[in-house]
Amino acid sequence: MATLLTLGLASCDGEPPISSLEKRTEKREETTMQATPNVPREGRIRPPAVAGSFYEGTPAALRRRVESLLHETGKTRLEEERLFAAVAPHAGYIYSGACAAAVYARLDRRAIRRVILLAPSHARGFRGAELPPSDLTAYRTPLGDVPIDQAICALLERTGAFGREPEINRREHSIEVHLPFLQVALEAFELVPVLCGWMSADDVQRAGGALASVLKDEKTVVIASSDFTHYGHSFDYVPFRDRVRERLYEYLEKASRAVAALDLADFRQHLDQTGDTICGRTPIEILMIALKSLPERPVGRVLSVYTSGDLTGDFEHSVSYAAIGFFRSVSESAAVEKRIIEHRSGQWTPGLDEGERRTLFAIARDTLEWAVRGSGGEFDFSRYPLTDRLREPRATFVTLKKSGHLRGCIGSLAPDAPLYRSVHHNAIQAALHDPRFPPVIPAELPHLHVDVSILSPIRDLPLWREFKIGEQGIILIKGFRRAVYLPEVALEQGWTVEETLSSLSEKAGLPPDAWKSGARFQVFESVVLTEE
Questions:
Q1: 4: left (phi > 0), else alpha (psi -120 to 50), else beta?
Q2: How confident is residue 532, by pLDDT bands cut at 50, 70 and 90?
Q3: Which of 116, 225, 255, 393 could be disulfide-bonded to 5 (CB atoms 3.0-4.6 Å)?
């Protein structure tokens, strides 16, 4: 069993609520409260303040949203690796939900039974860190009631580092926004909410030391919730006017890496030098001090970073988000060497063995690092064992995804370069030159999922009806227009053959029915290499 401490921090001011369409959908759904297995004792219950704005207001819609976000993280978790501390955002789910899910999907529901949330107050100002009133028995969300563990509240109060909140804060969202994620991920747990006001360095040090004593318990997990840079005139923070997206990611990368490394001096220096508007500075510092006080230093890893501008296209009013996890064991990447899986669309295969697949993937990953970071010079292929099969001319595609969404995909249909060089070239193109997306920047590299597709020789398709969905990729050629779909595209979209060809026509810049006359088709199979 594990106790979860969540350090909840200020969320983004001025974020739009859930859309009116989503609200109308919710109203058609069942609104009966579905209680969690834990039933609160008699006493006062804190009602939800932001249900229907930061997250869905009905049980069915909210559970569906959270389950979808947790499922879409694409996370991998080793059984021996236990997340016991983290930083996660607390903005509206349509903005930061995918980032928060990168943390909550890694919680072990078999172990965690108690949650301590430390959150700064937005509704009123005060000094110190306050526990809830002694007669408050639960926090309520559309998914049910989360009982408060007053025994742990009393333990923290006795340390002298925490006081008691005189009255329920009914408007504060920074604790509440985390609860539906926890209710779905953990099902049953107890809550210790703590609001943090203004705190001096000495106050922070005392609070961190008090938390360290709780963290020695194997049942304890700590999560600090914070949004990162709030950029724009509405936030009164415009430290730069050019290269806004790139500069925001520089700030995000600098701050999140300092936190993951538990480098408190570097984190504070970044904040002091830039004035970076990280709303959860104080709770994050408390968390860092507590973790640094443990006998065994935890392993920190940045799990997800992005900005609201990546979702809306508006970087002039943008909030950055980071998910940072801390683990008791070694990190995933150090614990095992990931296996490269081969997925065939049909029967064709280039015949690569495990070592060759690993080499090809290493070239793809190393190329991305080399190209995105602007390392300069020639890429050094001498580091890799280049077998005869890797030197055979092959056509390839490299696909990049981030948080489950396409981030770049470029390839070649002609086998005009050795396999290893084709992958190298297309990795550069996908990262930096896909016209649909801005170039990948260094802060995104740890969060990119990479697929390498190797194409079979292309052959003509005499009859369009012979096209095999999911087994073959297809090329449409009409006049000077050409378009291609890899084998997995039609399958993922659930298209029929006719729907595939209509979409392909539009992709080529033609009317949707242009494939019906004067067009010719070619097909190929592919093998997709991806990390396990």
A1: beta
A2: low
A3: 116
What does the alpha-carbon distance between residue 6 and residue 391 come to, in Å, rounded to a whole number? 52
**Considering 302, 334, 366, which residue would you say is the last residue of a domain?**
334
Give the distance, in angstroms, between the CA of residue 288 and the centroid of all CA atoms in the same chain.
21
- Determine the straight-line distance between the first and last CA of the chain, rounded to whole angstroms: 29
Q: Are residues 233 and 364 in the same domain?
A: no
52: left (phi over 0), alpha (psi -120 to 50) or beta: left
Q: Which DSSP category does 82 fall into? A: -
**Contact (CB, 8 A) for 515 and 476:** yes
For range 124-142, the mean pLDDT = 92
Whether residue 276 sits in one domain with residue 414: no
From CA 442, how far away is CA 249, in angstroms rounded?
Answer: 8
Asked whether 86 and 323 are in contact (CB, 8 A), the reply is: yes
Domain boundary among 316, 334, 352: 334
Q: Hey, how many other C-beta atoms are within 10 angstroms of the C-beta on 483?
A: 18
Q: What is the CATH number of the domain that holds 228?
A: 3.40.830.10
Can you give the residue range of the structural domain that contains 62?
2-334
CATH number of the domain within which 363 lies: 3.30.700.20
Tell me which residue has tokens 């919710």: 26
The string of DSSP letters for 310-330 reads HHHS--SSEEEEEEEEEESS-
Rounded CA-CA distance 163/154 in Å is 10
Instruction: Convert the pLDDT of each residue in 172-223 to its tens digit.
Output: 899 999 999 999 998 788 898 888 899 999 999 999 999 988 887 778 788 8
406: DSSP letter: E
Report the number of distinct structural domains present in the chain: 2
Percent of the chain beyond pLDDT 90?
A: 56
Six token digits for residue 162: 């925490």
Who has greater pLDDT, 15 or 35?
15
Going by C-alpha positions, the residue among 284, 279, 451, 291 that lies closest to residue 365 is 451
Distance in angstroms (rounded) separating the CA atoms of residues 13 and 3: 30
d(CA 464, CA 497): 8
Is residue 2 scored above 60 in pLDDT? no
Query: What pLDDT shows up at residue 43?
Result: 64
User: Which ranges of 159-304 would DSSP assign to H, the alpha helix?
Assistant: 179-186, 201-215, 244-260, 264-274, 281-292
Q: Are residues 299 and 384 in the same domain?
A: no
What amino acid is encoded at 252 in this protein?
A: L
Does one domain contain both 271 and 415?
no
Per residue in 511-520, is it b (16+ CB within 10 Å) or e — as a string? Answer: eeebbeeebe
Domain match, 275 and 360 both:
no
